[in-house]
Specification:
The structure is a homodimer. By secondary structure, chain A is α/β, with parallel strands linked by helices. Chain A folds into two domains: 1-124 and 293-324, 3-Layer(aba) Sandwich (Isopropylmalate Dehydrogenase); 128-292, Isopropylmalate Dehydrogenase (3-Layer(aba) Sandwich). Helices cover 50% and strands 16% of the residues of chain A. The first copy, chain A, contains 13 helices and eleven strands. Chain A has helices at 19-32, 44-53, 77-83, 88-97, 110-121, 156-174, 195-206, 217-222, 232-257, 261-269, 271-280, 307-323, 325-342, and strands at residues 6-11, 36-42, 62-66, 103-106, 131-138, 141-146, 181-184, 211-215, 227-229, 289-292, 297-300. An eleven-stranded mixed sheet of chain A has the order 3-2-1-4-11-10-5-6-9-7-8, with helices on both faces. In chain A, strand 7, helix 7 (195-206) and strand 8 (211-215) form a beta-alpha-beta unit. Chain A starts with 5 loop residues before the first strand and ends with a helix. Chains A and B meet through helix 8, helix 9, helix 10 and helix 11 of A and helix 8, helix 9, helix 10 and helix 11 of B.
């Protein structure tokens, strides 16, 4: 086996579709990337059956690793942590801990994934809390946003750490030098917002992070900054609200086109246009949120991800392994600490 | 003058367009509602000139009231409060305080409007903080949401008070008996969220408010509940995020239809369909956020409101005066207090 092979562990049982999505996405990724090796973690029989369905068998690039339990979508993080030590999710994370894989991916229960990953892998030195970060489409291309729900009641220091992690990850995966960072707030004026946000603004202003000040909710999709930083409660509500608005718009658009035969015909005429439009904001293309701040790379795929979307999550994992994201975050934290000491 | 006349004071200088929107909207409202009297507050000359432009003159249903100052969009609330005691905004609110008007409307600076209204009118007994509430389109019709930015760091008790105010207002303006109320949270499970939300959930569960539990960001536009309750920081971010998503979608849709001659022709074919669709989620139809919890009715129009949108804000004010919203909130608070004592 050549040295430059990369290994990624996949929780084969997680998400709404389990093996029926993870296995074909894995096979596709292996075809596309010759230096990739995948460890599928889950029920041995279920995985083998699904592989057979696709005319495939395990080999030295596609390893099956049995796990006897599955974390359900409604399991509490504490239940998963204490009661499901042999879950496909936990065993996939263990692969990273034990050095058998450089990253792992799960489409399972977010709370359980975060709790388990944090327990097994621990946070990076200097990071109090891991955060969830993802790319989002904007009018100008895309932006990264964090935290998306790992933490509520984030302090100024936490927001500052999120900003550093977001800046490093964005710089690496997008190849942007010192990406611009904004703090999500209720207004752009310095006096607005809560104490946590105001304190974080002070910390960021003093650092050499490319801090652009406060941004508002509509700035996320305008692409005003490369990295949007917020508390996890706010980030989660904001992201879910976005999904809600997009679904409502799509609902009313379908309704308008389905009104009568004439409007349905009109819909057929513009189908390619609507498809081109949808591709621009296709959430599947942005699938793969990263749990940053851990001593290892953990990617969360959307629970409802299809094969295309799950493949995107694999690509995200490959990119982060190649760019060595956790080590670069530690390095940057060290620099900023030096800088703070020097002030 | 008959006894059943209703008087509303309008800040004629507020918002992006000032008199050029407020005056024609006022004239339209007076044509539509014969029992309505309006007091236009602002620069006497500017208002008179604008009236002349529309071939109108002041009369006993359209009264001009001079105010020498204007609150600018970037004035701090404290500046407006201390330095602009003769602003059109302040004088319009004074009309409510002095009993000359039953409600007032301004399209000006939200922070200044809230601070001034609170200072001049005071909060209702039992209400610690006023909140901003508006109707939003949903897949099932519409819902009300509060707080949209008046307060950051709301306590459990504040959220509980918002829920009561939202429930009363929605019940009155929508004619719904005991509307369903949801608390905006990061997940539906009881253990999720921050302490404020968990505490508010307890208070609401014990009350006879029709409390449905936690809702998530996407529930707002699904119309899961009639009233969505949240802290103002979260509500503001959520609302602005929604605007951002809608604008991005519209941007990419225009781009798709403008790609070439063929797609432009296709766009013309479906123009009536797209118009019908847009009417369903037209934010102008939902213009007019209420500052609830004050001893008087104050309506905030969107700063960029056009004549159609500003007229909606006038209709909202008329409805709230007819339904006697502030008094009904006080009454409901009294009932709930009785109920708490009885437990």
């Amino acid at each position: 086996m050549p040295d430059d092979m990369m290994t990624i562990a996949l929780d084969a049982m997680g998400g709404d579709h389990g093996v029926s999505v993870v296995v074909p996405a894995a096979l596709q990724a292996l075809r596309e990337m010759s230096a990739l090796r995948l460890i599928l973690v889950g029920d041995q029989q279920v995985m083998a059956d699904e592989l057979k369905r696709h005319g495939a068998t395990p080999d030295d690039r596609l390893i099956l690793h049995h796990a006897s339990q599955v974390v359900e979508m409604d399991d509490l993080p504490s239940q998963a942590l204490r009661g499901k030590k042999d879950s496909s999710m936990r065993v996939a994370i263990n692969q990273v801990k034990e050095g058998n894989a450089q990253a792992c991916i799960s489409a399972g229960n977010t709370g359980a994934l975060m709790a388990t990953a944090r327990f097994v892998l621990k946070t990076l030195p200097g990071i109090d809390r891991p955060a969830i970060i993802t790319a989002l489409p904007t009018i100008r291309g895309h932006a990264h946003m964090l935290d998306l729900g790992a933490n509520v009641d984030s302090s100024s220091e936490h927001l500052y750490q999120f900003a550093i992690m977001g800046s490093v990850l964005t710089s690496l995966v997008d190849g942007v030098d010192n990406p611009s960072v904004g703090l999500l707030n209720v207004g752009e004026e310095e006096i607005k917002g809560n104490e946590q946000v105001k304190g974080a603004a002070k910390l960021l202003s003093r650092s050499d992070i490319n801090y652009k000040g406060f941004v508002e909710g509509d700035d996320i999709y305008k692409g005003t900054v490369d990295v949007v930083v917020c508390d996890g409660f706010i980030g989660n509500v904001s992201l879910k609200t976005s999904e809600g608005v997009a679904k409502m718009i799509s609902h009313y658009m379908k309704q308008a086109f389905n009104r009568n035969l004439l409007t349905r015909l009109a819909g057929l005429v513009v189908l390619p246009v609507l498809k081109a439009f949808r591709a621009k904001i296709d959430p599947r293309a942005y699938n793969g949120a990263s749990l940053v701040g851990l001593r290892g790379i953990v990617i969360k795929s959307h629970g409802g991800a299809d094969v295309f979307a799950f493949s995107q999550a694999i690509r995200e994992a490959v990119l982060e392994v190649n760019k060595n994201v956790p080590e670069k975050i530690t390095q940057r934290l060290g620099e900023l600490l030096e800088e703070r000491r020097a002030v």
